[in-house]
Amino acid sequence: MTSPASDRRLRVAVVHSYYSSRQPSGENVVVDLQVDALRRAGHEVEVIARRTDDLQHSLIYPVTAALRVASGRGASPRGGIEAFAPDIVHVHNLFPNFGRSWALQPGPPIVTTLHNYRPMCPAGTLFRDGASCTLCPDHADARHAVVHACYKGSRVATWPLARSTKFADDPLLTAASRIFTLNDDMLEQYAAIGVPAEKLVTVPNFVPDPGPAGAHDGGYWLYVGRLSPEKGILQLLRQWPEGLPLKVAGSGPLEAEVAAAAGASVELLGQVSGDRVTELLAGAKGLVFPSLWPEGLPTVYLEALAAGTPVLASPESVVGRLVAEQGTGLVQRGVLEEDLAEADRLFPGLQVLCRTTYAETYTEAAWVRAVEAHYREVIATRVTAPNENHSRHL
Question: Residue 42: which CATH number?
């Protein structure tokens, strides 16, 4: 294949296993946004998808999904790829509805976006028992995850994922010509397990522009996210000062515990729409982000910047690092009354900077420019099929 001209429309096959709608997934939303962005940029995009919502009604779905994950074999997007004949294949998520061994077969060049840490951590989070955990990648052995029942609190559910964890020898990472990480910390983590540095590049996600920054006159603080242990929501509520309004938007497994921990100043909104999140951010004094795990690039941080909303973040997550680097808020390990008082004083002066940071880094146009450049470079310098010796790892 010859190198396409810089203005030539590309044919892009996007491969994604959609998570269940019963567990709202920011990753699903991001993939759909990126597909629409590529189409608006003039490219021809074919989405090759398998959806948990369509498959989970089968009584044997849990068994077939577990076998597919453990072996790497099973449902393949190869037929759809061949029928579409793309210039490039962009893989997002294969878990749990696609196999992975197909990626090593000859075909168009592949790029992949890593939205989490699943190739090195069966839980995908590098988080266990309330703290960061790198036991599996540190020892190149995912059996530790089975011992600790890291996926859904079940050794049985964790076993297929541990069996499939091959670290740098993951079939998709082996086959991909370019690997997009969402932040530099994630890039360094993957390089540390042996993924070739020349394949890795940080390409942050984007969110749509909501328009002018909000007035931030609602008099409340805001939490938006899943109600789960790694998000730090319980710690936040247990420390939250009485008399300071906090709105909590989200759902998840800790709903009962969150309801019990919420004081009189906390309003629980449940799961809300994207439009409602935009409204809430526009009125908030600031976004509180207490997450305890590294994360990829949480969409709500980008949405906060787009709304001109500063962020009070914990240092454990990538948002804490970005806030410190970009000056878009404060980084605090806990949330105490004096922290909020300092944020109250500082945040109005950061609203313009937040909006500027969004405009320079996290817009649709910035993302399209980056991925187009990498697509064209990969296509122009594509190599032959991956080394067949890698098949021994399957």
Answer: 3.40.50.2000
- Could you tell me the pTM of the whole model? 0.90
Is the same domain home to 338 and 354?
yes
What Cα–Cα distance (Å) separates residue 295 from each residue in 134, 196, 367? 14, 22, 19
* Alpha helix segments (H runs only) across 140-210: 143-147, 155-164, 171-175, 184-192
Domain, as residue range, for 332: 221-361
Count how many domains the chain has: 2
Whose tokens are 């059996």? That residue is: 143
Q: Are 14 and 32 in contact (CB under 8 A)?
A: no
Cα 4 to the chain's mean position, in Å? 30
Determine the pLDDT at residue 6.
Answer: 60
Q: Coil, helix or strand for 378?
A: helix
Residues 6+ apart with CB under 8 A from 78: 102, 105, 107
Domain identity same for 321 and 188: no
Q: Is residue 280 in some structural domain?
A: yes
Is pLDDT larger for residue 331 or for residue 52? Answer: 331
Give residue 24's pLDDT: 63
Q: In this structure, which amino acid lies at residue 99?
A: G
Any domain includes 129: no
